[in-house]
Amino acid sequence: MKIALINENSQAAKNSQIEAALKKVVEPMGHTVDNYGMYSATDDVQLTYVQAGILAAILLNSGAADYVVTGCGTGEGAMLACNSFPGVLCGHVEDPVDAYTFAQVNDGNCVAMPFAKGCGWGMELNWEYVFEKLFGFGSGKGYPADRVVPEQNNKKILDLVRASSMNDLIDTLKKIEAMEPVEGITNMEHLVSRAVAGERFRELFFASCKDDAIKAYVESLLK
Predict the structure, then answer these.
(1) pTM higher than 0.90, yes or no?
(2) Does 3 score more than 90 pLDDT?
(3) Helix H or strand E encompassing 130
(4) If we measure between CA atoms, which residue out of 216, 197, 209, 222 comes closest to residue 36?
(5) 4 beta partners
(6) At residue 132, does pLDDT exceed 90?
(7) What are phi and psi of 215, to 5 degrees?
(8) Residues 6+ apart with CB under 8 A from 139
(9) Mean pLDDT, range 37-58, rounded to an integer
(10) Rounded CA separation 136/90 (Å)
């Protein structure tokens, strides 16, 4: 499994610590990690949690990543942004129980974590335990034992509901990219092209992208 790590600007200073905890846990399992940044609070390209959602959608829908780990101060904003897009099923995960139950009951492909709230002494241990429970026991097996069949059935229903309610990703991205300025709202122009302008985006994305249509659209943004 290829796991993408995305940090928005408020918690970018923790990127290397999160990456280290993630790699420590998942690489022995045979997974790989692609770190899409932000890498520091002073990166030239600044990502908001909304753009973390945009980037997660591009990576997952294109096949450039199988799973996304992201977050923000509380994890709530990143979770809401990610779940605004087709092909992304993001859970809000604070602790190992959240991680295990999300993996087994909801069988998603993205988590949003709080990287400020509750992140003091021992935070790297909590991250490691979260990643162990998230990636170390498979996914979609149901929980608890007496609820396996109905929980798996509910997940299938959720997938069908989401497929019915979500729009085509490229059409959605084009509408977002073309949004006109709104009085009283700053930093909203060209959200998509700025989301894919990160330092290592080209290197990581084009080496792994499996969807020609998404690849072509992204290429048009980067010209």
Answers:
(1) yes
(2) yes
(3) helix 123-135
(4) 197
(5) 34, 68
(6) yes
(7) -60, -45
(8) 103, 104, 107
(9) 97
(10) 18
